[in-house]
From TrEMBL:
It comes from Saccharothrix mutabilis subsp. mutabilis. The lineage of its organism: Bacteria, Bacillati, Actinomycetota, Actinomycetes, Pseudonocardiales. PANTHER family: ANTITOXIN HIGA1, BLL0069 PROTEIN. This is ImmA/IrrE family metallo-endopeptidase. Gene3D superfamilies: lambda repressor-like DNA-binding domains (1.10.260.40). InterPro entries: Cro/C1-type_HTH (IPR001387), IrrE_HExxH (IPR010359), Lambda_DNA-bd_dom_sf (IPR010982), Rad_response_metalloprotease (IPR052345).
Amino acid sequence: MTSRQRFYAYQPESFAPPGETLKEYLDEEGISQADLCRRTGLSTKHINQIVQGAASLSPETAVLLDQATGIPAIVWSRLEAAWQVHQSEIQTRAKLEEHVSWVSNFPLGYLHKMGILRDRKPSLENLQAILKFFGVASPDVAQQAWREYRTAFRRSTLVDGDEYAVATWLRLCEKAAREVGCSNYNKQNLVEALPELRKLTMEPPQVWIKKLPDLCSKLGIALVFKPALKNTHVSGATRWLTPEKAMVALSDRFKTDDTFWFSFFHEIGHLILHGKRLTFLDENPGEGGELLLHGDSKSDRKASPEIEADNFARNALIPDAVFDKFVTQTFTNDPGSIARFARKVGVSQGIVLGRLQHEGIVPWSRWRDMKQSVTFSD
């Protein structure tokens, strides 16, 4: 292989300015810098600056070197581009070094467990891994993106949540959702599928956990189940990945079927009732009657889209008129009447019990075994 052929196939294992390659070529060919100047029409000073790495190699110079050396201009240009990228990477690393402490904000143990981080320590390598995970260039860019999301999050009751844990959970959901193949979303198809979706509430979790995502994918919805992360306070999220594909993400925060199904239909409500440009991150507060299952504005923090989605979920599961009739005419304050009513209306008995509890009709501590456990794994 001649020296010229070798340079054609040049693939650097380490980065160096193209001037080093040019000097190596001149030495092997026995060509002086002055001779190269005569061949290219470039000044002695300019050639020397390129060789010394003090001047960049422009596309015009690459073409002249092609003509004088026979080494294609694209080879010279690639060497220059690789060197400039390498220099930029060094500068970027130096800037990122100042932000290594930012890594400590994240759930490092969880990210390490998921294989996203090499260990649980704040380091430049882990900072770069986190930025790559979120698909952003710097912590400042990430913070700006989250500020924009928080505008949407104000539509929910999300309070006192760890924004870094929330961002981690949402990003995991988004990445998983993008891997789900879906038909194009059609609102009418989703509305017509509501009875079939509701019917799944009567199935045990080990059945619907497989059937529900498949059904949703045919409706243009990438349904994702992700375990709740500590301090996220998130029950679900809705986000449009494309105009034809929606993500609905659900956590197992409360670990019972009544809260799961309410959260699911709440997110479905967002898809049917609200625009495709909006993002919703939703929290169902804990026990004690705070969960808005009946449409009354118990929380001033609830914006109208959240109240509308609550109302949609509540009526999709058990219409108000049907529930009110049950409470006033047939409920006998025993689990048997709950089970009979659940079979009659076609939902799980846990959903009926949860509605009674949130309405303050049945204490939270009573008949817990009527609810099914819901947990997710990574």
